[in-house]
Amino acid sequence: MHAFSSLSDLNQGLTRGDFSSVELTKACLERIRANEALNSFITVAEERALAQAQAADKRRAAGEATALTGVPLAHKDIFCTTGVPTTCGSRMLANFIAPYDATVVSKLDAAGAVTVGKTNMDEFAMGSSNENSYFGPVANPWNTTLVPGGSSGGSATAVAAGLVPLATGTDTGGSIRQPAAFCGVSGLKPTYGRVSRYGMVAFASSLDQGGLFARSASDLALALAYMAGFDPLDSTSADQPDPWLDDIPLSGLNTPEQAPVIGLPAEYFAGLKVGGAQMEEARKTLEARGCKFREISLPHTTSAIPAYYIIAGAEASTNLSRYDGVRFGHRCEDPGSLEDLYCRSRSEGFGKEVKRRILTGTYALSVGYFDAYYLKAQKLRRLIQQDFLSAFESVDLILTPTTPDVAFPRGKLTDDPVAMYQQDIFTTPASLAGLPALSLPCGFQQGLPLGLQLIGPHFSERLLCEAGFLYQRETDWHERHPEGF
Ligand code: GLN
Fold this sequence. Notes:
The chain is an alpha/beta fold.
């Protein structure tokens, strides 16, 4: 068993009896311990993991295994787990143990996967660098002085450093794709509604979507098969059965039946400082496999960041109002009055960036400013979505860089929130439109990984993953891993 094995290799090894799930899980736990300095985990769930691994070995022996039975994975600490804390990277929830499991957690548990722990993240998933975690920053394994991206930085790092072969994440405006790009791993943000949000701590409910980090598009597709699906417990969950997903565990991922026509949006390439050459190479690789390219325009792209930060902030301000120090979460010592209890509990429990979002979001929703900010942002959101829908009349997929730059040094952007927000320029548009998107490693710039992004129409995960598979069959960027891991 190898720290960088694919899910299907691990499944084969377990099936053949080359190693047991207990052995595999112990090896993962050991690697996690040896790499504590990365700070990619908030909680390591050793006991729970070993119990699950033992159960998985029994299930295999009984011939009832799925492709994930006995395979270790990590959950972003935003997914509720019974018996193990769910902190969401915040002091507010530092001691919170959820009374129920998130649907994502129970589905992957039901498949027999082994949860080794909960990964570090920006507080309440707000951030692009993982520097906003109450539990400290996460280091990028390619260069530990750099950020891993955010907000799912712990999950991205854990996969990149070979601590786990699979990790969950959430993506509201880029939180899977951007850290996947910065850490040189594959990441999938499914269509809004594809994966249940039940038990996933809410940040911006109209944008939040659970997804995955893994080593390849095929691993992503395989794990998605066990994670996606309609959930009556999430009112925005899509009742959209997909026979392709049901078949993946048996048939595996294929290349697309017909090579897709891929759009290159001019707005994403204009003035690109980093990654131009790698994107050009990716285009050539796909062209050689029969894909056709077309230049397209998504004219409202530049409005995505302002629209996203208004809408996400507004939704965050209402979602986070539940943390009042009364029902659950941090409570201040010796409150003098109810108002004092609210004020101090929230002041102590939330970090700086979360407070910034609550303040700007509340402002955007306030009576005098609602039309000028929130309503305007919603109109822009519709235009951005319309841009994509028009583009998909002439192309099957859209190819863009995932990020405008490679991973940056810790501390570089912490005093400049707007510059930090600009990091999400290429990821927020697909989020606002609710579209699925994939980030795949596509090369290096001065030794640091770069990611390409493929965006597809709603519920086109099949084509996205198949196109990703096509690309990864021709390249080996996804097989590289940082030195020393
Ligand atoms: N970086 C973005 C933000 O800070 C996106 C976060 C996310 O997708 N959760 O809001």
